[in-house]
Specification:
single chain, alpha+beta, Aminopeptidase, globular, 8-stranded mixed beta sheet
Length: about 180
């Protein structure tokens, strides 16, 4: 099933990744400031092989969702919900990134809201979770604007960029009706 979702921003949609996105993916993902706010699965430097692998993964997401954030016909970042397994099957890990030239324009908030609302409408998961590094208050604001609730501070829970750091757990829950 191919998902195409409008956002609240004119000209900005969520859509499947495609091979033609490769140049933008390489240009925007190979950025230390982007990498610094991502999990260990997001490489730095971001190479041709990394882009090829990502496009392959995104083309076959299984129960997960992996979409490009498209503004004016160009992929400017990514957003997704990674399906849990076992007893966590109703929970998905929610995340997003934007190329640095697109920060501060409301794009991440529009994308996060559109995807979370779609997941709720379609009842794809009962719970979305996102962990944010304590040094990233902008991402916390994005999640709050997208309807997520701050649930906990997980002290000394991550090592990133040579530092032991707290993460902040956010969740958006869709109770059964």
């Amino acid at each position: 099933m191919s998902v195409h979702l409008p956002t609240a921003l004119s000209g900005c949609v969520l859509r499947p990744w495609r091979p033609a996105d490769r140049p933008n993916l390489l240009r925007l993902a190979d950025n230390r400031r982007v990498w610094r706010n991502m999990t260990h699965t997001f490489p730095h430097p971001y190479t041709d092989a990394d882009a090829d692998l990502w496009l392959e993964i995104a083309a076959n997401p299984g129960a997960s969702l992996q979409l490009a954030v498209d503004c004016e016909g160009e992929a400017v970042g990514g957003i997704g919900a990674i399906a849990g397994e076992g007893i966590q099957v109703a929970t998905a890990r929610f995340g997003y990134w934007l190329g640095e030239p697109f920060w501060g324009r409301g794009i991440a908030t529009a994308a996060a809201t559109a995807l979370a609302d779609h997941i709720e409408r379609e009842r794809l998961f009962a719970r979305l979770e996102a962990q944010v590094f304590a040094w990233n208050p902008a991402s916390m604001r994005v999640l709050e604007k997208a309807g997520f609730t701050r649930e906990a501070v997980l002290r000394c829970s991550a090592t990133k960029d040579g530092r032991l750091i707290d993460t902040v757990l956010y969740a958006r829950v869709f109770p059964e009706t």
